[in-house]
Amino acid sequence: MWAKRPRGPRRRARMAGVIVRRIQDTSADASAVREVAWAALGGPSELSDGPRRAVLHEARTRHLVGSDPEGCWLAELDGRVVGTALSLRREGVWVLALFAVHPEVQGRGVGRMLLERAVVHGRGCLRGMLCASSSQAAVRSYRRAGFTLHPTMVLRGAVDRSGLLDPGDIPVHPGGAAQLHLLDSVDRRLRGAAHGVDHAFLLAHHDELLVADSLAGSGYCYRDGGAVKLLAATSRRIATRLLREALARVPDGTEASVEFLTAEQEWAVDVGLEVGLSVGTRGYLGLRGMRPPVPYVPSGGFL
Known about the structure:
Helix content: 25-40%
Largest sheet: 13 strands, mixed
Oligomer: single chain
Number of strands: 13
CATH class of the largest domain: Alpha Beta
CATH architecture of the largest domain: 3-Layer(aba) Sandwich
């Protein structure tokens, strides 16, 4: 059970007039979540990608409202949405999938009210996960909630296909709903809980699922355009093979990206360097009651 940390005497007063309510499974609420998230965290980096990302963002909100209604919250001020928190529970792991406060009201207690309600949804969970930006206000909130923050790296750039000449001896093939039991088994081994219903969402909204299943072990990887969104495997060898295959399938002219890599994921950094990607730093992987899963590339939306 997670214990609350004592609140210090310098805690700020809550902002007057703010109403915090559960998110409803409506297009209006899903759109409001997206708008406040983009205002706080930044919208699409490419305008041409905006409509597709908007659809995906709103679909994820409605998916989580359906699976975890008590973990999804909005903050309103004078009828305007100024903050949101989306969280989910999966077999003893609590995940904070989204936490955003509009820049105009940051530092005024809105985020604290939202996070308090989202954390209640994780009562009884021994482990917790989140992907965090470098926002100092968010960092303070996550530390108060007891999360250890692991600095993360990001790989980006055009794939140099000359670094992919050796395909490896582990077979990798496209996966689908028939492999969900395998995916959940790998999840439980690495992070102590399956993704469950989230795999159905990921399958429906990503370009492809890649699966490796051999005597050497098992693993899987989702790819969406140039982004590797979630990768889990029972060994670094299999993880390396999956990542190389995913990068080989990135369309020509599309930037590849692999995000939220902790220092434990050097195998992924090595693959990125081999194929010409650049390495930078960005944000944190927040964990509570657990160490970084290895080998593992988290999904920012579902961890």
